Amino acid sequence: MKKTIIISALAIASLGLSSCDDFLNENRFPLDKQTDNPSYWNNEANVQKQCDYLYLNFAGYASSEFYFATRSDNNASGTGGGFVDWINTNVPSASASWSAPYEVIRQCNYIITKVPGSTLTESQKGKYIGIARLIRAQQYYWLVRAYGDVQYTDEVIDPANEEALMSPRVDRDVVMDKVYDDLDFACKNIGNGSKTTWSSDLAYAMTAEICLYEGTYCKYRTLADNGKAPDEARANKFLGYAATAAKAVMDKNYSLNSTYIGNYNSVSLENNPEMIFYKEYKIALLTHSQINYIVQTTMIAGMSKDAFDSYLFKDGLPLSKTSCNKNDAGFVKKGIIDGVGATAIIGDELYIGDLLAERDQRLYQTIDTCLGYGSTPTPQKPDAGMTWARVGSARLFSSSGYLTRKFDNPEDIDWQYRQSGNYTCAPQYWLSYVYCMYAEAKAELGTLTDEDLDISINKLYARAELPKQTVASLSSINDTANDMGVSSLIWEIRRCRRCELMFDRDFRYWDLVRWHQLDKLDNVKNPDIRLGANIKNGNAPYAYMSGDYMLATPNNNRIYDARQYLYPVPQNQINLTFGAVTQNPLWK
To answer: Cβ of 289: how many Cβ atoms within 10 Å?
Structure first.
């Protein structure tokens, strides 16, 4: 098959340049004379340096995808007025979602084509080529996930090769087959590493993630919305790849961390037995501002009622089936003391701690025990023993009333100084995530057993203080909230994933894409995604209400749009290729 790509033309589209030569003659990685010299690649330190640049593709907490993912039914938009619309409402002239991955792919292809001719050992060559192929797979996955058919190459394109530069897109299934080939090579060749460096364990975890996406996407896609009909055989093939890759990680020496919140609010994850790969931050050296999204004096995006209600009760049953106390209205708790001086009374709070005690303990470790709106006190502050106290006198509030504590830094005392310079480490791939992928792949294949649950989901349930489940028990719950047209078993597996990964990266949005469930982001059809907490017992007014519940975003709606299953191709990209690259049909 003819190899195709358009690196320079798409970069021109984003930079506003006028010719291929202008862009390619710039001194960009790795086209300078030094790295083009064969002797350069004979030095392992140089090759390692080139691979180290690829770490930048793991954004960690530098990305707003942790917590602040507004394309979700987990967060009620925190803008104080408008409901956050789709990311694409018109065809853009240019987009980094298209251009940026191709720049990384060119970096990867340079390593892949230069290392084989070096004097490195075969083992060293396999490791570094494997790293480059792993990231190339990641970038093509991101492109296909967003755009469907994309341009493809596994070579560094000569800028004089106009035929390659102006070539059309390749069928997305063909590209994803090549993505799997890259992943398979990476798993077999990278080898051992630490939790902050490249390893085959990381490659297996990424393989599980990408193949689960591909398997479920091919199972649930439609010709009308996705441009391709469902393909059961293809779906099962990739679901099998996902289950196998996940099991390869599960068979290694990893185990769950003792606490759920410890994966997210720790200043070091080095000794966390659950971590496969994480991004390390160090005080005063490499920091982030993740806390800025959850600790502000302006309105922040709070958890939606829809997300709150997705958590099971302590009897292991959902809201529609439980015999536990279903009350969701907090009560006024008086005499809250200042956690700094431990003497001053700073006010009352609308307390929901008793409500959280009735539910999955992941919820308790994700949101605060008081509601944040109007004149409520500041959020809770953990100490080493998970005891919580108030800090400071400022008042915080969220769009839904629910305040997030999942990403707090336990070493910081005053929240007012945590808006930047934070140094908690960011999980990228970890065991509980792998457990969710394994269980879902097996459930979608129809091969999930009680033994599979015991080595995956039931471990997560135990940590969340929920009862053990069997395939039969999950299959018989039949939650009336199941609006996805799937079995009770798959619905419950998806619920566990949602709760385990609440506010993590941008998982929820892409889950809805691959399950063909983007209509769940339509707030007219699903009003609970912009509702917040029940504050009927509160003593502070709130401007927007729906009955007893806070209304997070009253001014506009987000309506389901089937075009959103694929991004629009940037118009400049179409223009630069003289129409060889075409627009996705629903965006024409």
So the answer is: 14
- Residue 69, pLDDT score: 64
Residue % of the chain over a pLDDT of 90: 64
For residue 54, what are the β-bridge partners? Answer: none
State the pLDDT confidence band at 450, using cuts at 50, 70 and 90. Answer: very high
Torsion angle defined by CA atoms of residues 182, 188, 191 and 197, in that order, rounded to the nearest 10 degrees:
30
Give the H/E segment covering residue 244: helix 232-250
Distance of CA 40 to the CA centre of its chain: 37
Q: Which residue has the tokens 């251009």?
A: 99
Contact 133, 112 (CB under 8 A): yes
* CATH T-level assignment (fold) for domain 7-76+88-265+569-587: 1.25.40
Q: How far is CA 456 from CA 78, 173, 255, 434, 436, in A?
A: 34, 30, 11, 8, 7
Which residues on neighbouring strands pair with residue 444, listed in sequence order? none
Give residues with Cβ within 8 angstroms of 385, minimum separation 6: none
Whether the per-residue pLDDT at 387 is higher than 50: the answer is no
Write the secondary structure of 423-450 as one string of H (helix), E (strand) and C (coil). CCCEEEEEHHHHHHHHHHHHHHHCCCCH
- Residue, of 23 and 302, whose pLDDT is higher: 302
Q: Is the pLDDT of residue 80 over 70?
A: no
pTM of the model: 0.90
| CA dist., res. 27 & res. 152, Å (int) | 24
For the chain, the first-to-last Cα distance in angstroms comes to 28
CA–CA gap between residue 80 and residue 555 (Å, rounded): 9
pLDDT greater than 80 at residue 466: yes
Q: Which of 160-164, 189-193, 381-385 has the lowest mean pLDDT?
A: 381-385
223 pLDDT band (50/70/90 cuts)?
Answer: very high
Tell me the C-alpha distance between 332 and 311, whole Å: 24
Cβ neighbour number for residue 144 with a 10 Å cutoff: 26
The per-residue pLDDT for 498 is 98
The contacts of residue 137 (CB under 8 Å, 6+ apart) are 179, 180, 182, 183, 186, 206, 210
**Beta strands per DSSP E along 42-183:** 75-76
**Of 380, 363, 370, 371, which is closest to residue 308 (Cα–Cα)?**
363
Q: What is the mean pLDDT of the chain?
A: 85
Tell me, what amino acid is at 494? Answer: R
**CB-based burial label for 173 (10 Å; 0-12, 13-18, 19+):** middle
Q: Which of 529, 10, 585 is nearest to 301 (CA)?
A: 529
Q: What percent of the chain has pLDDT over 70?
A: 81
At position 378, the amino acid (one-letter code) is T
SS (H, E, C) 328-385: CECEEEEEEEECCCCCCEEEEEEECHHHHHCECHHHHCCEEEEECCCCCCCCEEECCC
Which range (84-93, 176-185, 311-320) has the least confidence? 84-93
Cα(269)–Cα(404) distance, rounded to whole angstroms? 21
From the list 29, 176, 190, the residue with the least C-alpha distance to 106 is 29
Q: Which phi and psi angles does 185 have, rounded to 5°?
A: -65, -45
Q: Where are the domains of the chain?
A: 7-76+88-265+569-587, 281-424
Q: Are 502 and 311 in contact (CB under 8 A)?
A: no
